[in-house]
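Appendix B. Chain record.
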Amino acid sequence: MTDTPDPNVLLTDAEGFVPIAIIGSRSWPDDELYVIDQYIERLPKSVRLISGDGGKVDLRVRAVAARLQRRFTAHPIDKTGLPSSSDKARLAEFTARAYARDRNIARDCRYLVAFFNPYKENGTLNTRGGTRYTVKVARDLLRPVLIFLPKGVDPNDKRHRI
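Structure tokens predicted for this chain:
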């Protein structure tokens, strides 16, 4: 007998729902948001959707979950007590809290889906950030991860790997 769960069995939460986190890059193309809709529409009703609470993909997941009347859990960044100044200390604290939120998303889900754009909105390569970090944490927790890339992005290009 083994303690390793059967990967073919959907692991449910205490309420009997399968927690699936759907996250994504702020730079995910507007004209490809429909891909998120289509993905969620094809999921069984027995899922609980999980996302952040502010980015473009997060807001889309929330809206589609509401439209389809699916269970949804938001993981906002805790902004209480942040320093009021706009200096480096505030940015560092906000970033630390964002990464803590990302870890919570990865822990809360059984499966993680990432809509990842390897390019920022200004066209430069996206080499760090919340989506990359959350995928890493999920993989470290042995969560299955599914990654979507925008049209025209070569999945075989090493720079596009996450």
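Further analysis of this model is presented in Appendix C.
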